[in-house]
Design a protein that fits this description.
Helix 3 runs antiparallel to helix 5 (about 85-100) and helix 5 runs parallel beside helix 8 (about 175-190). The protein has a single domain (about 1-10, about 35-200), classed as Four Helix Bundle (Hemerythrin (Met), subunit A). It has 8 helices and 2 strands. The protein has a two-stranded parallel ribbon with strand order 1-2. Helices cover about 70% and strands about 5% of the residues. With about 200 residues, it is mostly helical.
């Protein structure tokens, strides 16, 4: 399961995304009528989390782009925890959930992430252990797996970046911003009556 989880991560994420998009299109927030302040707060929380996630993913990409499986990256965000890219992805997923102006979607995204990504992380770390041996074992011993420990932060004075690979990674890092924009378009279409909804979600 761990190997397959990593191998098919992108495919599974896209399929899950398509299913979730259907439910977003077919749903409206229960709070939209008479609870404008509450829905505005939910959306604001979502946008803040999406912004943090996007910046964090670009930061991670700056360090790892072009170096995957070639060298063990332990600086910058990777000095805080071993999986900062997934940490920021979780923040972004929860942010998108809040951008739906519901409480159900952020909880659902958290459950889905917690149900699947531990297998991906386990698979990747098994591969890294095989590739880098004692160096990675030392990294595991000194650095938390998922939640950042800010006292460990280590940043080099200079860092060589592959601009071509990084440019590609930027588009991936901005997915959450684009998704938030899509949700706003859907909301605008729903308000004009161009699209309807099958049910309301809390």
């Amino acid at each position: 399961m761990p190997f397959r989880a990593e191998k098919y991560r992108i495919l599974i994420s896209r399929v899950a995304g398509a299913i979730i998009l259907f439910f977003v299109l077919a749903s409206k927030s229960h709070w939209q009528t008479g609870n404008e302040l509450f829905t505005s707060i939910l959306f604001f929380i979502g946008i803040v989390l999406v912004g943090v996630a996007s910046l964090g993913r670009m930061w991670c990409s700056l360090y790892v782009a072009g170096y995957k499986d070639k060298q063990l990256v332990t600086n910058g965000p990777y000095s805080l925890c071993r999986n900062p890219l997934y940490f920021f992805s979780l923040i972004g997923a929860i942010g998108i959930g809040f951008c739906t102006e519901t409480l159900t979607f952020p909880i659902l995204f958290l459950i889905l992430f917690a149900s699947y990504y531990p297998f991906v992380i386990k698979s990747e770390e098994k591969r890294l252990s095989s590739n880098f041996g004692a160096e990675f074992e030392s990294y595991i011993h000194n650095t938390p797996a998922f939640f950042p420990k800010f006292s460990l932060f280590d940043e080099p004075a200079t860092y060589q970046v592959n601009p071509v690979v990084y440019r590609i990674h930027i588009f991936s890092a901005l997915w959450f911003v684009w998704l938030a924009g899509i949700l706003e378009v859907i909301e605008g279409l729903r308000e004009t009556g161009a699209i309807g909804s099958l049910w309301s979600i809390y």
